[in-house]
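Please, structure for the following, as tokens.
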Amino acid sequence: STTPAIAATEVEKRIASLGIVIPRSPAPAANYVPWKRCGNTVFISGQIPKAEDNSLAKGKLGSNYSLDEGKAAARLCAINLISQMREACSGDLDKVKQVLKVEAFVNATDDFVDHPQVVNGCSDLLVEVFGAEVGAHSRFAVGCSSLPFGVAVETGAVIEISE
């Protein structure tokens, strides 16, 4: 017997048109769950810039990592956020009603001040994938002296999903 093809959702079509592959969600690295749902709100744990080949975008902004590299790392975090969103929505990203908030940490030197530009790598992709009405969000972008595994950026998110 053959399984009928599942029609791609609107969001999945947009992802494909952008040439992006959303990987399977990685398992948590410690004692926590990757996302937690309360009503229609989903809190997504911090996602690091881990590529499909398991490589990590490591570096410190203001020292050994450029602004463009930081933005690319933040974009990779967004791809991993979307992967967790897909899990929380049982595979249907069209169920994401709103990206409410992005919480971002940038591994940076004390004198680095361009955290917002780095995190735009994440925010811009979320708006590209979900459209401005769903993807535009509140956020914070802060610098810190280190992040797990030496990665350059870590992002979490809060989203609203439909039933």
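The longest helix spans residues 67-88. DSSP finds four helices and five strands in the chain.
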